[in-house]
């Protein structure tokens, strides 16, 4: 793996390409200023404008949402796992049929593993532009987003229609549903009753990990944050580890499947070997690197000071916890 080939598998934070028309609420006031990013995999964007940085299958998708203060992501659900960690800003996550069943505020570095089968949304409640990074289960991320009925109606009132094919059509731009394509069906009242209403007390202890708790557990070996025997026990089809300065090692190692490195704090040097020749690159907070399978490599902090990095690797298990109370 040459330096140029490896650079093709690094997405720098400053080079992320946003899509401002990714989802059905792109024109809805309060949600119309958000930016969506698809970093690895096809993601769940409903827009043909969405740029995909790395299309190589990993068994999961990596994306991000960037939002200015008071900007909200509308209520929706997924069929596979949806995990967020806060790269910057202060964020309120809320859930339930009307977003009132429970909520939690996350700070930088905190992580939430949102169960499948419940409506959820989030908003930037900080004072600056904020960014959250997302991991979605599966290569196809479950086939798209399931929207609360009022989100679909609000979107139609502002000129956006979602087709049953999962694609958006902007009436303001003169677009219309193609022949044979009907609007995305709205969930019926009977179907909506199947969506649970867990409280804050139900969700937070089992699905939220605070950054400094992860750092403490990752002081001597990487903290397994999400996985079968993790801080947040689950089998979403991938594992998430937090590596700190204390748990980083210079030992060269490899994986038999691609893995992903996402620095949270500090600068990290990734070293790998190709036919006996060592190469290295430095990753910064917000960067995302896909390490190919079979490549011997090590990851170490480059400078003094706080250093932490999320490591994600696919597993052979399912799509994650479906909320059952």
From TrEMBL:
Keywords: Plasmid
Protein's name according to its UniProt entry: Putative cupin domain protein
Keyword Glycoprotein: no
Membrane-crossing segments per the record: none
Coiled-coil annotated residue ranges, if any: none
Domain of life, per lineage: Bacteria
Protein species of origin: Octadecabacter arcticus 238
Residues annotated as domain Cupin type-2: 69-132
């Amino acid at each position: 793996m040459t330096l140029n080939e490896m650079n093709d598998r690094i997405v720098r934070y400053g080079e992320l390409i946003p899509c401002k028309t990714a989802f059905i609420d792109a024109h809805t006031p309060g949600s119309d200023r958000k930016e969506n990013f698809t970093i690895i995999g096809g993601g769940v964007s409903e827009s043909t404008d969405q740029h995909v940085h790395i299309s190589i299958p990993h068994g999961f998708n990596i994306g991000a949402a960037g939002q200015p203060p008071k900007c909200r992501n509308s209520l929706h659900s997924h069929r596979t796992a949806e995990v967020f960690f806060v790269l910057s800003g202060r964020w309120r996550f809320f859930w339930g049929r009307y977003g009132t069943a429970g909520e939690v505020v996350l700070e930088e570095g905190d992580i939430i593993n949102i169960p499948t089968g419940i409506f959820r949304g989030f908003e930037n409640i900080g004072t600056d532009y904020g960014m959250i990074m997302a991991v979605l289960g599966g290569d196809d991320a479950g086939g798209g987003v399931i929207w609360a009925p009022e989100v679909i109606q609000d979107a139609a009132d502002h000129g956006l229609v979602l087709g049953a094919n999962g694609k958006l059509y902007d009436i303001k731009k003169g677009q219309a549903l193609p022949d044979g394509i009907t609007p995305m069906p709205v969930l019926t009242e009977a179907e909506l009753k199947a969506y649970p209403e867990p409280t804050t007390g139900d969700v937070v202890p089992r699905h939220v990990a605070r950054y400094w708790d992860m750092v403490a557990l990752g002081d001597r070996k990487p903290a397994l944050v999400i996985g079968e025997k993790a801080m947040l026990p689950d089998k979403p089809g991938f594992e998430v580890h937090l590596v700190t300065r204390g748990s980083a090692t210079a030992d060269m190692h490899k994986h038999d499947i691609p893995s992903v490195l996402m620095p949270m704090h500090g600068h990290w040097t990734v070293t790998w070997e190709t036919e006996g020749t060592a190469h290295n690159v430095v990753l910064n907070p917000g960067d995302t690197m896909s390490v190919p399978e079979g490549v011997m490599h090590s990851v170490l902090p480059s400078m003094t000071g706080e250093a932490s990095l999320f490591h994600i690797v696919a597993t052979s298990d399912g799509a994650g916890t479906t909320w059952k109370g």
